[in-house]
Amino acid sequence: MNAARMTIRRSESLGTAHSGDVTLRCHFAFADWQDPRHVHEGSLRAVNLLSLPAGERYRIGPESNVEILTWVERGSLTAEIDDFSKENLKSGDLHLVSAGQGCTSLNWSAEQGATDCLQFWLLPDQNNSEPTQEVRQGFPDTQNGAFRILASGFPEDDPEEGETVADGSPIALQTRARLLRATLPANEGAVYQTTPGRDLYLIVILGHVTIKDAVLFQGDAAAFENCETFTVIAQEKSVLLLTDVPAI
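The line above is the sequence of Putative quercetin 2,3-dioxygenase; the predicted structure tokens follow.
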């Protein structure tokens, strides 16, 4: 069995890619920024940070056989994907487009003021499905500091019959992966546990935290391989996003 490994990725080491007039900060190789040391983490193909001035639009496409999750950190966005309905997103909202057999035009626009968001690109378990779009608005914070599931491809994470999306049920993915968020008060922690054959990627959105002897600040990330559990402690109020994906 391979030994568990945690690799720290500092925010200043992220790559810079360009798409039209938009500049992206990239955790993994993307567009015109290529780095053989940072290609993907399991089936997590890309993590991109977008900062859009008011009126700016990020356009991509065509895209196929990828799931793109967009989490709005600050401001508001309008998502326009092919012939799907236009979706208005605000801080804390989550948008999914599963490109499946192909989406021609994918657009995200900052309509009223500057907007910051993160996009997670996931490889689906099966290719060439029908394209879909889904949105969840304003997931409430958990009260115990635990990781809350925002999106999942595991049937057991679905709410029980009769519950509604108003309860914050996760977006349904077409890959056996999860996106989770934790909001931790100062000096409190959260434990996450997964199963063998998974890769984990944690990003500090706000604040700073410790994992064992490592200190991670806002914008830093930690990749976990062959690691089924970890504990994170907030040194100040902190917000974290975590992906749990198949190791490939």
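Note on the example: The chain has no helices and 22 strands. Residues 161-166 have pLDDT under 50 and may be disordered.
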